[in-house]
Design a protein that fits this description.
Layout: H1 7-37, H2 43-67, H3 70-102, H4 107-137, H5 157-184, H6 189-217, H7 221-259, H8 293-311, H9 314-322
Main location: membrane
Protein name: Rhodopsin domain-containing protein
Region (Disordered): 258-284
C-alpha cells in the first residue's frame, strides 16, 4: 500500500511524537527520583532507567537522521533502528518486574515470572539479531534514491510477522498473568488495584503494537516510522503509570484526611501493600511519648489518703474518698 505524506506533515508528526517522548522521559525521571527518595528502588526501576536511556538515544537518532547528511545521518539511522526495539522490550521487563515484586513471597510464582523474563530476553535477542542480519547483509537501502525520511532499513514480511508474533505473545503474557493472579491468588486490596493497573495498561500497549506491526506488514511506510515513535513514547508512559497513579492516589487521600479533622485513617501508611509509602530507616532513632498525667494523679490521690489516715479522721473519711 502506497501512502505518502508531505514533508511538512512528516515533520510536524515527528515534532508531536518527540514532545510525547520528552514528557515520558520527565515522567520516568520523576519516577526514579520518587523511588530513590522513599527507598523503594528495585529491579523494575532499573529496567525503567535502562528504557529511559534507550528511548533518549532513539529520539536523538531520529533527529540526527532527519537533520544531517553523510556519515552522521547513517549513525542516526542505526541508533534509531535499534533503540525502538530495546525501549519497548525494556519497558516490558519493567512491567514484568512489577508483577514479580508483588508475588515475590511465593516461590512458585517467582519462578514462573523469572521463566517468562528469560523468554522475553530470547524474543528481544531474536529481534535484534534479525535486524542486524537484514541491515548488514543487504546494504542497498543505504544507496536507494528515496526521500530521506523513507531511507531506512526495512524488515522483510517474514521478519515483520515474527515481530508481530513476539508483540502479541509478550503482551498476552503480561495481560494473562495479572488475570491469573486476580483469579487464583488472594491478594490485599491495594495489590489487586496494582494488578488491575498493569492489566489495563498492557491492553493499550498491545493494540498499539498490533497497529505498528500491521503497518510494517502492509508496507505503509509513511505511518511505520510515526507509529514507531508513538509506541516508544507511550510505552514509557505505561511503564511509569503504576508509580505515578499510586503516588497521586496517596497524595489525594492524605489531602482529604488533612482537610477533614474528623476523618479517621482506615488505611495505615505502614500497611504498605502497593509499595508506594516511604520505608523507615532502621538506623533512625525511634521516640515514644509516654503520658505521665495519669501517674501524677494517682500519686496525688495516694498522698491525700495517707494524710487523712495520719490525721485520725478515721475510716469515715477514707470511705468517703472511696465512694
Amino acid at each position: 500500500m502506497v501512502l505518502t505524506l508531505s514533508p511538512a506533515t512528516t515533520f510536524y508528526l515527528k515534532v508531536c511524537t518527540s514532545v510525547l517522548q520528552g514528557l515520558a522521559f520527565l515522567f520516568t525521571i520523576f519516577r526514579l527520583w520518587l523511588r530513590y527518595k522513599i527507598h523503594r528502588l528495585w529491579w523494575e526501576d532499573v529496567w525503567a532507567a535502562i528504557a529511559l536511556c534507550s528511548g533518549a538515544s532513539g529520539l536523538m537518532g531520529l533527529w540526527i537522521f532527519l537533520k544531517t547528511t553523510g556519515e552522521s545521518y547513517m549513525v542516526g539511522v542505526w541508533i534509531y533502528a535499534f533503540a525502538f526495539t530495546c525501549t519497548v522490550w525494556f519497558v516490558r521487563m519493567s512491567l514484568l518486574c512489577s508483577i514479580l515484586r508483588i508475588v515475590y513471597s511465593s516461590q512458585r510464582l517467582r519462578r514462573m515470572i523469572l521463566a517468562i523474563a528469560v523468554l522475553f530476553a530470547l524474543m528481544w535477542a531474536g529481534l535484534i539479531a534479525q535486524k542486524l542480519y537484514k541491515c548488514t547483509t543487504d546494504m542497498s537501502w543505504q544507496s536507494t534514491p528515496q526521500r530521506k525520511d523513507h531511507q531506512l532499513c526495512r524488515l522483510s514480511s517474514s521478519m515483520a510477522a515474527y515481530e508481530l508474533f513476539t508483540d502479541i505473545t509478550s503482551d498476552a503474557i503480561l495481560i494473562l498473568t495479572p488475570i491469573r493472579l486476580l483469579w487464583n491468588v488472594k491478594l490485599p486490596r491495594k495489590q489487586r488495584r496494582m494488578i488491575l493497573l498493569i492489566f489495563s495498561s498492557n491492553i493499550v500497549m498491545t493494540m498499539l503494537s498490533i497497529f505498528h506491526a500491521v503497518c510494517m506488514l502492509a508496507h505503509i511506510t509513511a505511518l511505520t516510522s510515526t507509529t514507531t515513535d508513538f509506541e516508544s513514547g507511550l510505552s514509557l508512559f505505561i511503564c511509569n503509570l503504576l508509580v505515578i497513579v499510586t503516588f497521586s492516589y496517596r497524595k489525594f487521600r492524605r489531602g482529604l484526611r488533612n482537610g477533614d479533622p474528623e476523618a479517621t485513617t482506615t488505611e495505615s501508611d505502614s500497611e504498605d501493600d502497593d509499595y508506594t509509602a516511604p520505608t523507615r530507616s532502621s538506623s533512625a532513632p525511634q521516640f515514644t511519648t509516654v503520658d505521665l498525667s495519669a501517674l501524677t494523679r494517682d500519686k496525688t490521690q495516694s498522698g491525700a489518703v495517707s494524710g487523712m489516715l495520719e490525721s485520725g479522721d478515721g475510716g469515715a473519711s477514707f470511705a468517703s474518698i472511696l465512694v
